[in-house]
């Protein structure tokens, strides 16, 4: 993944962003932005936890939703599916 360096001169910066956007549609990291590394680390971990929580919720909803649907279709003398 490309890294965009904000410490470079403006022309280089524009080329880095353009290249990353054209080749991959994104870039992995921006450096030399002045934000303390500790704060970036805390923010990154928080984002990851949030994403993982959303994935767990989606999986749970999918599983529970399926089981309710199957129970609703169940007939006393056989399955209708």
Record keyword descriptors for this entry.
two-stranded antiparallel sheet, alpha+beta
Structural write-up:
This protein is of the alpha+beta class and 81 residues long. It has two domains: 33 residues, no CATH class; 37 residues. It is 63% helix and 12% strand. The chain contains two helices and four strands, in the order βαβαββ. The strands form two sheets. A two-stranded parallel sheet has the order 1-2. β3 and β4 form a beta hairpin. The model has no long low-confidence stretch (mean pLDDT 75). It comes from Hibiscus trionum (Flower of an hour). This is Non-haem dioxygenase N-terminal domain-containing protein.
Q: What's a concise summary of this model?
A:
This protein has 81 residues and is α+β, with helices and mostly antiparallel strands. Helix content is 63%, strand content 12%. It has two helices and four strands; from the N terminus they run E-H-E-H-E-E.
């Amino acid at each position: 993944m490309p890294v965009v360096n904000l410490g470079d001169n403006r022309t280089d910066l524009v080329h880095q962003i353009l290249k990353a956007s054209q080749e991959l549609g994104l870039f992995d990291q921006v450096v030399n932005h002045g934000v303390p590394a500790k704060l970036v680390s805390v923010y990154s971990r928080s984002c990851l936890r949030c994403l993982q929580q959303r994935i767990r919720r989606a999986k749970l909803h999918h599983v529970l939703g399926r089981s309710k649907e199957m129970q609703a279709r169940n007939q006393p003398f056989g399955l209708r599916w």
